[in-house]
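F.,

This is the one I mentioned.
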């Protein structure tokens, strides 16, 4: 029962997961009408998909890496997932959620989150490890380039604001600088976090014009 669904975020219903893996990231593709989730455990089955959130099907992952997050690019018709383990293959991509291909990551860092910017036509991923290279970007999900992070903090989550034209990432470590922002995914600027908490998730609300982190 490692999935739950809700039509209103109030009442939740347990669903049968495709496997009892440690599922860590999930996203939705409107174009495919498909949820896709990734896990950091399992043998050859670290992806599962569902058209309705109720019935889930195991898919063969490109490698048994520790997959932590997944995102969808409508413009490229591509899922991209990132991992915190593996040798030179800490990215995998899929056009349909079924067939997955390993890609060469910019570095063997512990990549924890990835997002897509339609306006920049760019994927950006953040890591909790690495020396001066805790960001990587890609225009196609295949070729990845290391970028200089604002600080060597443990960057856990990243999101994009179309309205601000800005990436924002949050971290679980650092002193007064557990946020960093970038207008292009290349140049990153440290920002003063509200507190030195272990920030693990960030999201942008277009309607409220606001980032929220937890």
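My design for it:
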């Amino acid at each position: 029962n490692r999935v739950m669904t809700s039509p209103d975020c109030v009442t939740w219903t347990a669903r049968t997961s495709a496997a009892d893996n440690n599922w860590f990231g999930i996203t939705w593709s409107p174009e495919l009408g498909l949820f896709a989730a990734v896990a950091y455990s399992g043998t050859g089955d670290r992806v599962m998909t569902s058209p309705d959130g109720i019935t889930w099907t195991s898919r063969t992952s490109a490698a048994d890496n520790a997959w932590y997050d997944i995102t969808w690019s409508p413009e490229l018709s591509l899922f991209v997932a990132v991992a915190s383990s593996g040798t030179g293959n800490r990215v995998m991509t899929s056009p349909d959620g079924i067939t997955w291909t390993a890609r060469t990551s910019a570095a063997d860092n512990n990549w924890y989150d990835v997002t897509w910017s339609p306006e920049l036509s760019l994927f950006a991923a953040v890591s909790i490890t690495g020396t001066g290279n805790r960001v990587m970007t890609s225009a196609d999900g295949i070729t990845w380039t290391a970028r200089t992070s604002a600080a060597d903090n443990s960057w856990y989550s990243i999101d994009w604001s179309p309205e601000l034209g800005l990436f924002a990432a949050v971290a679980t470590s650092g002193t007064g600088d557990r946020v960093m922002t970038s207008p292009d995914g290349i140049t990153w600027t440290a920002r003063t976090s509200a507190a030195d908490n272990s920030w693990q998730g960030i999201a942008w609300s277009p309607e409220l014009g606001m980032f929220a982190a937890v």
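The CA atoms of residues 80 and 141 lie 6 Å apart.

Talk soon.
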